[in-house]
Amino acid sequence: MTEMTYIVVNELFVEAKDADTFEANFGASMRGTLGEVPGLMTARLLAPQSDDRGYLSVLEFSDKGSYDSYLISPAFAAAHQWPAHAPFSRNELGEFTQLMQL
Predict the structure, then answer these.
(1) Which CATH topology does 6-97 take?
(2) Predicted TM-score (pTM) of this structure
(3) Which terminus in the chain has less CB density within 10 A, N or C?
């Protein structure tokens, strides 16, 4: 089977009082640091629709090697200046290989 894309999903749990700050700062960081990342095909920030879920940062890379390169890049370091960057209480990271697309 040919690997189509490599997708990284980070669920970031944000307290309600910090939601506006998180959205503004995290969104600005994504726009400011991800535009020139080699192999990054799309980047999305999704807002939760229920109180028990976090925001989803979804990055889609052309392959796992592109993601691995991103992890050691200046863009990654710039995007992960916590906690001043964007407040969140915890996160859960998942890595996925796309098997199908319609």
Answers:
(1) Alpha-Beta Plaits (3.30.70)
(2) 0.88
(3) C
